[in-house]
Amino acid sequence: MLFSTPTQFAVLALLLIAGWFLGLASHPGGRKWKERYLAERDAHAANRKTWDAEHKTLTAQTDERIATAKTGLDDREADHRDRIAELERENERLRTAAPVTAQTVAPRPRAAARPYAADDRKRGWFDFS
Known about the structure:
With 129 residues, this protein is mainly α. It has a domain at 15-95. The chain has helices at 6-26, 31-96. It is elongated. Residues 70-97 form a coiled coil. Keywords: Coiled coil.
C-alpha cells in the first residue's frame, strides 16, 4: 500500500486541500465558459428561427404542390375513365366480331438450304462468305 502511516495520510489530505485552494486562486471565475455558453445559446436561437422560417416556407410550398396535384389528378382521372370506357367498347366490339381463320394467312415458301462448303473444307472463325 502506498500510504500506510497516519502522518502520510495527513500529508495527503493537506496536499488535497492545498490543491483545491490553488485551483480556486488560479481560476478566472467562470467568466470564459459563461461567455461561451451565452454565445452558443444565441447562435442556437438564431439557427432555430432560421429553421422555423424555412420549415414554414417549405410546408407552404408542399401544400401548394399537393393542391395543384389534386386538381390535375381529377382531370387525369376523368381522362382515364374515358379511356377505360373506350377500351371496354372496343373489347365488346372485338368479342362480337367474326373470328379470323387461319386460312387467310398464306404460307411462306421455304428457302433452299445452302451447302456448307463447296470444296468440303471446314470454315474458319472468320470465313463469312
